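thought: fold this chain, then report.
action: predict
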Amino acid sequence: MEIFADTYTWITISFIGFVIAAYVMGRKSVTGTLDAYVASIRAQIGEAEKLHAEAQEQANEFELKHKNALAEADKIVAEAEAQAEHILENGEKEIEHRLAAREKQLDAEMTQLKENALSELRAHMAKLIEEETQALLKKSLKKDGDSLIEASIAHIKAAKDAA
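observation:
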């Protein structure tokens, strides 16, 4: 039994005994610690997955809201363009209506001015004719034509007033 007398043998046996004792006694605490660490990692992974799902859900909601906002903006732009077109059409119709009314008014004024000018021209012509007739009659009927002149003047005035 020289084997047991050797120090290396006892050191080896002691080391193996220590390892076995450490394994038996420390296995529960080491595995418990490792199990707790694994459980906390699993909890963190679960929390991360939960947060990821919430973030994905919020991203989907925001994307939907963004699409709805774009659709609403397109709708508002289309309505604004339609209103602008309607206003433009109404403005053009209003301008055409006002131009037509103004043209009608100017035509009426032009007709009235023509009638006034013709009336003044006729009155002036009648006055000139009357004066010339008086002058001619006075010359040709100087002696006894005074009564004829007066009758002719009265006749011309009556004709003038009738016209």
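thought: worth noting. The chain has one domain: 3-124.
final: tokens above.
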